[in-house]
């Protein structure tokens, strides 16, 4: 069965042609891009790769407006917040998008377009709920079998393969995932929220509300799937890959496998409803 592919934008020009070929084979499958097509895409990306700002890795950071205070008070109270900050010091701020260093090599165009539509209303409330969400989204059941199920997250268009342990008590709920920025040796990397950041740039917005994780390290950053992230070497360049590059011709159109997220749900006990 062929892998389902989706259109993406990829920063291939940061790598050598050989690295770009290995990267696209890993994320798209062998033969998806011919050697000639890949060489053309890589050359376009490389030739278009220019600095997008004067402060890569050191974005301007601001306090959120006083009108956001009610929302911000609720963010750390959510049950998913503790695991999300992973024991690091944290702060909630609004951060300049373009200079954020990009761990991601690709962004999915359908997911960017989803967020463009969702964030098109630039009111503070919709922007906060999109980037620092408080609601949990129920996953819609797609198919089920013994001990496992396939569910679809309606907001992101992402399929989740779920392995159930013990009894199946309920359809699981997707926890809110805030935009996260990781500070490593004083430099700021976008960790979660690439599609939202790319969407905001398309909408002419230059700032994004986020949770900043302080004093992080590369061990933490490597939680990002290997096939989709840059290794540390590009960030020693004078013009490292930044989130702003996804809004330039350096981000070339490619095809990548549709994302499937795998999670395990463990139920300690099952609650039965008696009618």
In short:
With 275 residues, the chain is of the alpha+beta class. It has helices at 17-28, 35-48, 69-74, 81-85, 109-119, 124-131, 194-202, 218-221; strands spanning 5-10, 61-62, 89-96, 101-102, 106-108, 137-138, 140-145, 148-153, 158-166, 173-174, 180-184, 187-192, 207-214, 252-257, 260-267. A hairpin with a 4-residue loop joins strand 8 (148-153) and strand 9 (158-166).
Notes on the protein architecture:
With about 280 residues, this protein is α+β, with helices and mostly antiparallel strands. It contains 8 helices and 15 strands. It has helices at about 15-30, 35-50, 70-75, 80-85, 110-120, 125-130, 195-200, 220; strands at about 5-10, 60, 90-95, 100, 105-110, 135-140, 140-145, 150-155, 160-165, 175, 180-185, 185-190, 205-215, 250-255, 260-265. The strands form 4 sheets. It has a 6-stranded mixed beta sheet with strand order 2-3-13-11-12-4. Strand 8 (about 150-155) and strand 9 (about 160-165) form a beta hairpin. The chain is globular. Residues about 165-170 and about 265-275 have low confidence and may be disordered.
């Amino acid at each position: 069965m062929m892998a389902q592919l989706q259109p993406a934008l990829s920063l291939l020009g940061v790598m050598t042609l050989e690295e770009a070929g290995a990267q696209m084979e890993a994320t798209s499958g062998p033969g998806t891009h011919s050697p000639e097509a890949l060489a053309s895409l890589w050359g376009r990306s490389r030739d278009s790769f220019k600095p997008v700002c004067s402060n890569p890795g050191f974005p301007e950071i601001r306090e959120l407006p006083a009108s956001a205070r009610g929302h911000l008070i609720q963010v750390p109270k959510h049950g998913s917040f503790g695991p999300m900050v992973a024991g690091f010091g944290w702060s909630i701020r609004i951060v300049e998008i373009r200079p954020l260093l990009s761990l991601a090599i690709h962004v999915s165009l359908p997911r960017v377009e989803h967020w463009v539509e969702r964030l098109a209303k630039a009111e503070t409330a919709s922007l906060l709920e999109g980037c620092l969400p408080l609601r949990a989204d129920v996953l819609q059941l797609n198919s089920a079998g013994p001990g496992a199920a396939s569910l679809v997250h309606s907001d992101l268009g992402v399929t989740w393969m779920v392995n159930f342990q013990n009894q199946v008590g309920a359809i699981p709920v997707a926890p809110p995932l805030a935009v996260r920025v990781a500070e490593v040796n004083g430099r700021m990397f976008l960790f979660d929220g690439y599609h939202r950041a790319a969407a905001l740039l398309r909408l002419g917005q230059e700032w994004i509300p986020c949770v900043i994780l302080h004093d992080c390290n590369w061990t933490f950053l490597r939680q990002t799937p290997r096939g989709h992230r840059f290794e540390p070497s590009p960030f020693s360049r004078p013009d490292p890959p930044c989130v702003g590059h996804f809004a330039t011709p350096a981000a070339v159109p490619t095809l990548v496998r549709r994302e499937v997220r795998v999670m395990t749900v463990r139920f300690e006990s099952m609650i039965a409803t008696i009618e």
